[in-house]
Alcohol dehydrogenase-like C-terminal domain-containing protein
Amino acid sequence: MGEEIRYKQVILSNYAKTSVKESDLSLRTSKIHLKIPCGCDGAVLVKNLYLSIDPFILALMKNQELDLPSFTLDSKLCMPGMTAYVGFFKFCSPKKGETVYVSAASGAVGQLVGQFAKIAGCYVVGSAGNKEKSAFALMKVDLLKNKFRFDEAFNYKEEQDYNAALKRYFPDGIDIYFDNVGGKMLEAVLNSMRLNGRVALCGMISQYNSLEQPEGVHNLINALVKRVRMEGFFTSDHYHLYPKFLEIVVPLIKEEKITYVEDIAEGIESAPGALFGLYSGRNVGKLLVVVARE
């Protein structure tokens, strides 16, 4: 029969209609026999040590059909690193001295985009946020400037006027926007883009949660008049670039020119709260749940 063990599962209790709630998920304890069925030569039993908490999970909870990328448990050498590399270098084509804005800059991808931009010789501003003016929100901004070496950073939740905020940090306009949030911030950025600017559409987290009708962008004429190139991408379409990515990033890691932060929650019981926190800005860096330490 094999050894019988008890294990825990996080189960989707209800499809999310608008915003995700912790009550949409429940914890269940079940039993399983640790035995590989006969005839399965070469098969192995796998033990999960970590869960990756990612924004696109909400689409699955809403029963939406998406062509989602595959991914591996990550760090700066896996999914977030590749996403930052492909989005910034392939789709933004940075030049030394250009101005770069990164939204959700304290997240898994944004923190690396900012560091890549600094290494490329760009002027970089990042935004991060928390719903309240708190020490946590200040910590995010401080992290961007002092650990990830962004030139400037701000808490977008404190800004009443995104256009005014961007004008303050980019008086001469934005050359490159790495978009992780979409919505009203994308609209404001299009007002500040410079001629021949580039926008990499990496994520739309402001549109994933709490909105029955996604917000539209009402000023796309700016993209036309300013000859702005906007393009969305999935990292899984560009895995052929992985050797080049390693060639560039591994030396940077060894030379300690880039750093990385992970936000780790302990125990599978914490998974629902971690997912909820992702959409409310409670995480800093790549969000993981530790299922087992060994």
In short: The two ends are 24 Å apart (CA to CA). The chain has ten helices and eleven strands. Residues 142 and 153 are 8 Å apart (CA to CA).
